[in-house]
User: Which sequence fits this backbone?
């Protein structure tokens, strides 16, 4: 019993000695954090992002001509490519409503699980980019990485639409 008390006392003593001998780490906190609005993203910055940008095929163009929300999506992506993040600076409700309408208005021929999945990925990337506007101490590299995710997800959606319609247009005769 006395031996256990001695061990406990020594452990507590070592703990106190360790606690007081630890060097205090000082972390520097910037008193003037950089905000999202203060970082100037230009079209040149976005042009420097490396990704494959797919264009809609002629067949795809015809299929989406009445899908107004997709036309608006393409417009917003073009605006984003110019460095204008105003769409993502607005209220979350605007982005939520936009994506909801985009999903609801999918033309029947394009309403497949693979295209719905690409829209869901795009939605996630939109919300990630929209969500960083309230963060402090952002750098340009971080914002550009979120923009890159949006551009890639949009390009993958276009690729999926092209693939879907190309596959349907092929007439394969079975022997």
Assistant:
């Amino acid at each position: 019993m006395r031996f256990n008390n001695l061990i406990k006392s020594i452990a507590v003593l070592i703990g106190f000695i360790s606690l007081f001998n630890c060097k205090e780490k000082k972390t520097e906190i910037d008193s003037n954090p950089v905000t999202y609005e203060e970082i100037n993203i230009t079209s040149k910055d976005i042009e420097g992002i490396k990704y494959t940008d797919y264009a809609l095929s002629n067949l795809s163009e015809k299929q989406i001509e009445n899908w107004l929300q997709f036309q608006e999506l393409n417009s917003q992506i073009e605006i984003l490519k110019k460095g204008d993040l105003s769409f993502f600076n607005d209220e979350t409700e605007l982005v939520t409503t936009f994506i909801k309408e985009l999903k609801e208005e999918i033309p029947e021929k394009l309403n497949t699980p693979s295209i719905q999945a690409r829209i869901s990925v795009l939605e996630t990337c939109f919300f990630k980019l929209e969500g960083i506007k309230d963060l402090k101490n952002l750098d340009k590299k971080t914002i550009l990485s979120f923009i890159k995710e949006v551009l890639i997800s949009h390009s993958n959606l276009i690729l999926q639409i092209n693939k879907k319609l190309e596959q349907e247009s092929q007439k394969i005769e079975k022997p």
Confidence is low (pLDDT under 50) at residues 25-32. Residues 42-169 form one domain. Helices lie at 2-21, 43-47, 58-64, 68-81, 86-89, 92-104, 113-131, 140-169.
